[in-house]
Amino acid sequence: MNSTANTAAKPAKTVLISGASVAGPALALQLHRYGFTPTVVERAPELRTGGYKVDIRGTAIEVCRRMGILDEIRAKSTDMRGGSYVDDAGRTIGELPADIFGGRVEEDDELMRGDLARILYERTRDNVEYLFDDSIAALAEDADGVTVTFDSGTVRRFDLVVGADGLHSNTRKLAFGPEERFKRHLGAYISIFTAPNHLGLDRWETYHAIPKKLLCVYSSSGETDAKNLFIFSAPEDVPYDLRDVADQKRLLADTFAGDGWEVPRLLEHAADADDFYLDSMSLVEMDRWSRGRVVLLGDAAHCSSPASGQGTGLALTGAYVLAGELARAGGDHTVAFARYEERMRPGVEQNQKMAEGFVKEMTVDSKWKIALRMFMVRTLPKTPWKNLIAKKIRDGIQAAANAVPIEDYTAPTGTPAAPHPTVTA
Ligand SMILES: Cc1cc2nc3c(=O)[nH]c(=O)nc-3n(C[C@H](O)[C@H](O)[C@H](O)COP(=O)(O)OP(=O)(O)OC[C@H]3O[C@@H](n4cnc5c(N)ncnc54)[C@H](O)[C@@H]3O)c2cc1C
């Protein structure tokens, strides 16, 4: 008789996480607390600190509090004062205060993506093994674990593998199949890069609309440079090599060639930027997020595109729920993965739906529609129903931000999870 036939699989202990941005290090933080041994592999040679400002709202704020990182997040607040739309000549057309833009609102914490990635990395680096400049080349699962072959040639065993490697997830490709099966382009591209703050902005966003395009330049609290955001609509995937940064920069320059305002100067800065980011605004839609001992987290599982403003919050919440469920199930991944997905999925779908609507609103396709939008921007703050409209927008966003209910995994119903440490500043 086979002596192992009736033996339950041993509880998972070692977890390989692919991706050291937001979801990956957040999961590592929680798993380490619960007694697991996480290892994080990141393709980039060092922590990537680029990116625009990201929002943490609703449930995600409570998640950060429980992770013990909320005070650090608040210390890095962008502290935005508001923003304005400008015309071709740089003249202000209309202003919007911070309570419409976010940033200073009670129920919305906002910081730079790079600052958040750094906070999570600093919190974990002493207790978690990080493997930079490497990537998973192959996964071979058996009854007891997963044999992982890395690009570097190293071969190691892990109990579980988590793909937290973003929209173009390598783990998803290896375990579930090609990206095209799961990625749905929403009809727009986004580019972000850092450049000198030549407009002298102080915690202020400056928007400029062009048919089918939108630009935003801003500088947040404590930043000497400015962030530059370019959005353009493109109904189909573009014929550029988006794995090649030089080709991405060419795409941006070709798309905005001949446009006015500060565009020529900003494109010059784009050419020199070393944190240049360009990607399609896409959703990742999957029937399931786990297969055997492999599970996906954050954008890898359910990217809602930057338009939702919820990708980071969902990545943090997902990390909290996945770690909590693994702890509660005593490392039984079959139970934990199912519960994680069950808890996250309805809220994720609500946010993805919202993102689709937002992408359509980001750009408008003609000059007269821009003029109409500018008329509304100018008149809205003077109307008696200004607060009503702002409240309606905020309520919609808050509902989506609270769409994933979280449990207190410090009071588990199953196998006990270790208590959270005291939250420190
Ligand atoms: C440099 C950068 C800038 C960004 N800027 C913005 C922004 O301005 N606005 C916005 O809304 N969102 C931005 N995002 C996306 C945003 O961070 C995510 O939507 C959200 O925070 C969810 O995070 P995530 O950890 O699931 O995925 P991501 O933040 O996309 O992180 C995925 C991580 O996996 C790594 N990775 C990719 N492939 C591999 C591989 N083969 N092996 C190992 N690691 C791999 C990536 O380098 C990255 O560190 C940015 C992401 C990055 C990486």
Task: Please tell me about this protein's structure.
There is one protein chain. Helix 2 crosses helix 10, helix 7 runs antiparallel to helix 8 (263-272) and helix 10 (311-328) runs antiparallel to helix 11. With 425 residues, the chain is an alpha/beta fold. It contains 13 helices and 18 strands. Mean pLDDT is 88; it is low at 1-7, 101-105 and 411-425. It has a single domain, classed as FAD/NAD(P)-binding domain (3-Layer(bba) Sandwich). The strands form 4 sheets. A 7-stranded mixed beta sheet has the order 5-4-13-14-15-12-16, with helices on both faces. A hairpin with a 2-residue loop joins strand 13 and strand 14. It is globular, with a radius of gyration of 22 Å. The protein binds flavin-adenine dinucleotide. Flavin-adenine dinucleotide binds at residues 18-24, 41-44, 48, 50-52, 54, 113, 135, 164-167, 170, 192, 277, 298-300, 306, 311-312, 315. Residues 14-329 form the FAD-binding domain. GO terms for molecular function: FAD binding. InterPro entries: FAD-bd, FAD/NAD-bd_sf, FAD_aromatic-hydroxylase. This is FAD-dependent oxidoreductase.
Small molecules bound in the structure, each named once: flavin-adenine dinucleotide
Subunit arrangement of the protein: single chain
Instruction: Give me the side-by-side strand order of the main sheet.
Output: 5-4-13-14-15-12-16
The low-confidence parts are 1-7, 101-105, 411-425
